[in-house]
UniProtKB/TrEMBL annotation:
Record-linked Gene3D superfamilies: 3.40.50.10950, Isocitrate/Isopropylmalate dehydrogenase-like, Malic enzyme, N-terminal domain, NAD(P)-binding Rossmann-like Domain
SMART domains attached to this UniProt entry: malic (SM01274), Malic_M (SM00919)
InterPro entries (UniProt xref): Aminoacid_DH-like_N_sf (IPR046346), Malate_Decarboxylase (IPR051674), Malic_enzyme_CS (IPR015884), Malic_N_dom (IPR012301), Malic_N_dom_sf (IPR037062), Malic_NAD-bd (IPR012302), Malic_NAD-bd_bact_type (IPR045213), ME_PTA (IPR012188)
Organism whose genome encodes this protein: Halpernia frigidisoli
UniProt name for this protein: Allosteric NADP-dependent malic enzyme
Amino acid sequence: MSNKTNRDEKNFRQAALDYHQSEPKGKVEVIPSKPHSTQRDLSLAYSPGVAIPCMEIFDHPEKVYDYTGKGNLVAVISNGTAVLGLGDIGPEASKPVMEGKGLLFKIFADINVFDIEINEKDPDKFIAIVKGIAPTFGGINLEDIKAPEAFYIEQKLKEELNIPLMHDDQHGTAIISAAALINSLQIANKKIGDIKMVVNGAGAAAIACTNLYMALGLKRENILMCDSKGVINHKRENLTAEKLDYVANTDKTTLEEAMEDADVFVGLSKGNVVTPQMLKKMAQNPIVFALANPDPEIDYDLAMATRSDVMMATGRSDFPNQVNNVLGFPYIFRGALDVQATGINEEMKLAAVYAIADLAKEPVPEAVVLTYNLKSLNFGSEYFIPKPFDNRLITKVSMAVAKAAMESGIAQKNIEDFEQYENQLLDRMGRDEKLIRMMQNRARSNPKRVTLANAEEYNVLKAAQILFEEGIAHPILLGEKKFIKAQMEKYGIDLDVPIVDPTDDDQEENRKKYKEIIWDLRKRKGVNEYKAKRYVRQRDYFGPLMLKNGDTDALIVGFSKNYSSVLKPILEIIGKEKGVEKVASMMMILSEKKPYFFADTSINKNPTAEDLVSIAKMSEITVRSFAIEPRIAMLAYENFTAKSETSQKVAKAVKMLHEKFPKMIVDGEIQPDFAMDSDHLSDYPFSKLGITPANTFIFPNLESANLSYKIIRGMKVAQTIGPILMGLNQPVHVLQMRSSVEEIVNLTTIAVLDAQKKESAKK
């Protein structure tokens, strides 16, 4: 055999291994994510290339995690014998629940799922079936299997399989409610070793919950467990092995008797079994977990009306403190899969408990507050469990579980760099989050003073709190001091930052300085001394003058005023960058796929070809500042034909750009859908865009740009950041009317990055 033949075979072997090992592992896409358009691609994907990783795995079984999606694939398995509160409805009827569980795994932790419904009630036969299919999966989530079979099935499978496995109905509820118990006891100023607890229900979830509470320090002698026949006491007969563990030496027989002087009630039974009279018999500051769904053991509003000192959690999303298993299982499996754990042990469960409990005590991101249409969310009686849409869960819980698996010795793969692992987890939740995170991290490295006008507004105040607490910026509040303080007190915003009121006596010296600045700038442009004195008492002028005088590093204005009216004093006071004839604005559009940039969206109504050249160049510089290579499409409603007046203007701008900036990746006139599609671009091989889609779009006029981004903003299909002002020699940005807290935080972050860049340019 020739050396060339040997070399070709070696190269093919390596190519096949690279193909099957390449990211994204375990991704399930409607459109295949790997190359598949040529014969060579298919030979790598299937025969003969697929044989090479097959043999690698045969020789080294652990490499199945390298060459397949096993490490990111979980089976959700049920026989339909205990579905929700519906009971034994069979495997087919359970399928919607299992499919829904799979969706939660995917959207909350980026874990792929096969749901498997098994028509088998015999525990040993069920176990044999699961064991037989286990090699396909990185983990197994057992679901909706009735007790006592659920205990036996889980225990046997844990003994015989070496992958993460958990019966979520038992342990998921136990983990979330245990976190809630830790926090509610702290608020009630009670110790777990001292409390008396009543558990109503003695099924799989109730037993698992009580076992875990005992691991936290609850004493067995302080527990009264009830089933449908009453208190499980020493007089009862024919009890299951699990119930025998909770036999109490008491003469109490009914739930009502058990509730007397109890500190905590945990209901895992059925609705409306707890009466107001029972609740009144409980100890001071009682804790009630009424977790039956859809009807709690006692209605939330009824409980609140019965006792003002009660703290309550339910399984419902329309009341505070929802004990929702989605707070746990996606992230527990995420952490377990990422270290290739051989199981899910008690150490991992407890790590999840403490991670969830601790998260509820941290300041809540504004995005979470807004998701639930609330003004604020603070640790206390109405918030002692994190909300399901808190995107910090994936890092806090997954990392805690992964560490516990490593420390307890059941991890087959160690994580060396947890900071890097945290970023990988966040990357799973979307590219827009990654870009925002990158910008905020850069801002935190050197935070700047940013003055926020309209500081009387709740959204602006809340944004300032986030910016301050997260170290993104040093906020300065600009507005009427008395009203700002009243708003802070009203909304419970504790923020120790400067408040600047242009009309205050303590600003007299600044007003004198600023009057001279504006008089010097505008004395030959229609401003007399009287007007100058009047202007310096108005925030629209005071803010830009602060920036001009070096009393702040950046300025955020707008929110409650028309864009053009707010822009006027900025243009009068803040000069343009050298070489810039007209300023322009850009919107950043964060889609699920990647970020896009639209210009000019706010300022130039009908730009000339020369203006479009300037806008394109400023856009290139701005996009590059986000560590993204700009690929610029000059938009029109024609593709490289230039028949209309608008298209001719764009074509002229493109010609000028090609001549003046030959290294810019820019072309047009082109329609946006063509500029965003590789197949369409391949029809124009002469284009400087090549076949790689554009990410930056220069619109031919203000109307088309403004309408385009506002349609996207209105549809809420992508996050919008901006408008980002381009061409000023100092960092100023103008908020859109009624911007959200998140939009204010993001635009301020960009202002900090601008200030950093200006500072570096001066050095």
